[in-house]
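User: Please predict the structure of the protein below. I'd like the answer in structure-token form so I can feed it into my own downstream comparison script.

Assistant: Understood. Taking the following sequence of 334 residues as input:
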Amino acid sequence: MIAIGVFATLAVLALATQAGVAWLQARFPARGELITVTGGALHVVDLGPRGLAELPIVLIHGASSNLGAMRAPLGDQLAQQHRVLLIDRPGHGWSRRDDLADSSPAMQARAIAEALDRLGVPRAVFVVHSMAGALGARMALDQPDRVAGLVMLAPVTHPWRGGVGTYNQLMTTPLVGPLLASTITLPLGLLLTEPGARAVFSPQTMPSDYVDASATPLLLRPRAFRANSWDLTTLKDAVQEQVWRYPQIAAPTVVIHGDADKIVSVDFHSRAFAAAVPHSKLIVLPGVGHMVQNVATDLVQREIEGLIEPARHATASRGPLVSIDHQPRQGVAQ
């Protein structure tokens, strides 16, 4: 009788999950173009004026989110004057990843590059947040001609102490992960999404409409949640593998991080990264948490725009990528 009860409960939860997926996808539809790439397809939203002499700006979101986390206010604000490409990372938002276990920053960087090539964008300024810091660094290493400038927002770049949570580990376990993802994750996640988002914004206050405006609940769909867990559980090894290469990054780089960030340590990641990258500038924001693009949007925009004009000239001359004043720009602004 107990086994029958458990099976019946799981069956009900599975049906509720399928209904929830349909509801979420109707509530938060795709807003851009789906571009086929090796191993899946990437959802890209292309904003702002076309045909500009300057290079476009590519915005890439972090973990447990989608391109909506980078669109408002930063993406929309930049798009008033610049061409902006927002991308759902493979397996997230409306992007598809055929092999969920193939989660490395290197793979994701290749997929994004393939999508940009299909859009006729061989070179851009890249802005990456949180977990995508590892991806942005990897793209600058593996595809230096593509990265005209790099802006890292509260980035993950180095191995850290501890893990990424038992639930994420369970999600990558055969049989157990798919079972949990298709039954309890969505119903439970709907209760926890808003408190979780508030914690990410802390000590700042989350905008009241953030969860819906950013379409964050799309994460709760089974494949998206499992893709996110694979990203997280393999991330430490991935950054460990690439960290020694950071001094090879040639792109002018700006790193912006809040010293009150409880999600990603400014000391373990941004300070160490800026010290390793030759043409880098570190800006530490006192009292600011993890969501730098929301809290210091104007400052982030200024730093992005500060890279665009020099990057355009570097592209036109086909010369080496250097910092604005042709000197390493390491330092801390507080």
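That's the full token string. DSSP finds twelve helices and ten strands in the chain.
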